[in-house]
Amino acid sequence: MSKKIVIIQGHPDPRGNCYCHALEASYVKGAREGGHEVKQISVSTLVLPILRTKEEFAGEDISPGIQRCQENISWAEHLIIIYPLWLGTMPALLKAFFEQVFRYGFAIGLEEGNKMPKGLLTGKTSRIIVTMGMPSLIYRWFFGAHSLKSLERNILKLSGIWPVKESLIGSVDSKDNDYRQKWMDDIYALGKKGK
After folding, report:
1. pTM
2. DSSP symbol at 190
3. Domain ranges of the chain
4. For 65-114, how does the pLDDT look when each residue is reduced to its tens digit (9 = 90+)?
5. 23: alpha, beta or left, given left = phi > 0 and alpha = psi -120 to 50?
6. Across the chain, how many H-helices and E-strands are there?
7. CA 53 to chain centre
8. In the 8-state DSSP scheme, what is residue 86?
């Protein structure tokens, strides 16, 4: 069964020559060969002003570029989020993207008299692919994968996107090309299955 998939490329380097971009290309190739429809969002090409007030976050003044991202995410059944781990978390530009796109009224709803927000993106699933210099086991067990858990729980699950799977690719700078190629092959296979 084919899926509608949106890939959010969270690497902030617009040159497109990083390992995250190679992983994205592998996923896209696999997904298209598997019969899935794919749309791509490159965070590095978007104009993403930093939101500074509650009013800006709740406001309706959204740029056309952000509106297109919201339309693509609404269209999708499955989201792929790819980013490098920087200082233990996602790059600031990717965080700015989530703040701009996953606003009240699009991703999160507030009902009158109810203090708990309601996820508006239910029925969608996601996979997060994170590259990092440290071994992924150390990130997961010693550091507690706090930023990954925050993205899963505080952004995706809160918005109704669930389940969320993850692929943590550690030691990317110190491993050989065979290691990196194995991961690209694994990501290609996930794309082919639409997972």
Report:
1. 0.95
2. H
3. 4-193
4. 999 999 999 999 999 999 999 999 999 999 999 999 999 889 999 877 77
5. alpha
6. 7, 7
7. 24
8. B
34-68 pLDDT per residue, tens: 999 999 999 999 998 888 888 888 777 889 999 99
Q: d(Cα 24, Cα 31) in Å, to the nearest integer?
A: 10
| Beta-strand relationship, 108-109 and 125-131 | unpaired
- Considering the domain 4-193, what is its CATH architecture? 3-Layer(aba) Sandwich (3.40)
Across 69-87, b (16+ Cβ under 10 Å) vs e yields bbebbeebbbbbbbbbbbe
Residue 40 CB: number of other CB atoms within 10 A? 14
Chain position carrying tokens 């996953």? 102
Look-up: residue for tokens 């990954």?
A: 148
Residue with tokens 């994205």: 24
Q: Which token pair is 7?
A: 């890939």
